[in-house]
What we know:
The chain has 147 residues and is of the alpha+beta class. It has 2 helices and 8 strands. It has helices spanning 2-16, 22-38, and strands at 49-52, 68-71, 75-77, 82-92, 95-104, 107-118, 123-129, 138-142. An 8-stranded antiparallel β-barrel has the order 1-2-3-4-5-6-7-8. A hairpin with a 2-residue loop joins strand 5 and strand 6.
Amino acid sequence: MKSIVLPVLALAALAGCDGGTPAATATPAAEPTATETAAFTAIPVAIRGRWGLVPADCEPGRDDAKGLLTIDATTLEFYESVGTLDAVTEAGPTRIRAAFDFEGEGMTWQREVMLEVQDGGDTLVRRDYGLDAAPAPYRYTECNQGN
């Protein structure tokens, strides 16, 4: 009896493994990220606002706030350039990586930028990607609304 039971169990186990459905098991794991990113057509609310590289950048009325970065739903506004959201690569409630179309000082260019809020919303980390991108990330501090 033992000699019949073991081969039957082995065949039953093999029958359950058809080997023809690897895509079915891989697809569900990949879908949540794609769905989440597709839902973002704007810069997440947690990232929007005024951010300064140094405290003086946040002082109202300064004409020389070269480290000020103002972010709204679709644009990054720097001292001498503006980037408009083009295509989102990945996103979440406190992070976005996307291509932006920039213009400033008579020039236009495209750059991939990652923005991520850290430290409970007090810090914004910006990393640029591409040919002329800075090698290290920029760290901004949120400008207080009361300034």
